[in-house]
Amino acid sequence: MGNLRVGLIGLGMMGRHHARVIREVEGVDLVAVADAFGDPHGVAKELPVLHSVEELIAAGIDMAVAAVPTGMHEEVGLALAAAGIHTLVEKPIAASAPAGQRLVDAFVAKGLVGAVGHIERFNPALQSLRQRIANGELGEVYQIATRRQGPFPARIADVGVVKDLGTHDIDLTAWLAQSRFASIFAQTTTRSGRPHEDMVVASGKLENGIITNHLVNWLSPMKERLTIVTGEKGAFVADTVTADLTFFENGTVATEWESVAAFRGVSEGNVTRLAIAKPEPLRTEHEAFRDAVLGLRTDVVTMAEGQDTLVVAEAVLESSRTGQNVRIAAL
């Protein structure tokens, strides 16, 4: 069997990284690229730059990556599904929940692999953390808190910070906990003069009882990407910028300073920065997509999971509009 033939549509900031990684991954060949606005980063190299998803399909591809703007995900994804092409679409799955559901249904109906690029799941720090939680190293999990903030990215124009950055935190939280969101309360603000929100604070509860907190914005001069999981044995802190994972252990040595001890629920223990392998998350994501197409593994972020994340993101926006806690409908 020859290599899988891959097509890439969308040659912007994310598209250039997808092109590089596709060329590095074994078992696949990048055979066609497309973008109606050209190739600003010169990623096509020897390939002609096609102008539409129809031209991409005509190139005879087995699988595709759609890195087009969010508002185009539905149109491009439905065309690829109709043509029988396995597709990885960048996150969020679509601009709206109804559009996302149409994509889910289209790929299921054709029996195709449909994946969503929630790349944080493939960050080595979070992959290690997920395994350690499953192994019981934290005991019962009480809370998952995330902080994702930094300057505004000029490439984003069609959605706000909730559907762009916030969907990372919604997805990784549900994945780490292996539980859906049950409810969410959120407040947003818009300070940059753009039409969409650029700052959000959200608190939620998962179906398994874990409580969550998420601080996400495009208004901070420093870049921060932290996930903190607190449980009965201590807390893990994952920094997905550096892919570092640190364990703060609950101690067994009592605090002798009485005025400090009175305010501590647990005593301080050892702090360990764990040694973990650090492969590039985008490469790991592409390898998972390739293997899913080959029927070898199933750890891609499915379109159904991407749709569930989008439903929660829209509940975040609904809560910010109404000032009410929003219940997430059970599956």
TrEMBL record:
<dbReference type="Pfam" id="PF22725">
    <property type="entry name" value="GFO_IDH_MocA_C3"/>
</dbReference>
<dbReference type="Pfam" id="PF01408">
    <property type="entry name" value="GFO_IDH_MocA"/>
</dbReference>
<feature type="domain" description="GFO/IDH/MocA-like oxidoreductase">
    <location>
        <begin position="127"/>
        <end position="236"/>
    </location>
</feature>
<protein>
    <submittedName>
        <fullName>Dehydrogenase</fullName>
    </submittedName>
</protein>
<keyword id="KW-0520">NAD</keyword>
<dbReference type="InterPro" id="IPR051450">
    <property type="entry name" value="Gfo/Idh/MocA_Oxidoreductases"/>
</dbReference>
<dbReference type="GO" id="GO:0000166">
    <property type="term" value="F:nucleotide binding"/>
</dbReference>
<dbReference type="InterPro" id="IPR036291">
    <property type="entry name" value="NAD(P)-bd_dom_sf"/>
</dbReference>
<dbReference type="InterPro" id="IPR000683">
    <property type="entry name" value="Gfo/Idh/MocA-like_OxRdtase_N"/>
</dbReference>
<feature type="domain" description="Gfo/Idh/MocA-like oxidoreductase N-terminal">
    <location>
        <begin position="4"/>
        <end position="118"/>
    </location>
</feature>
<dbReference type="InterPro" id="IPR055170">
    <property type="entry name" value="GFO_IDH_MocA-like_dom"/>
</dbReference>
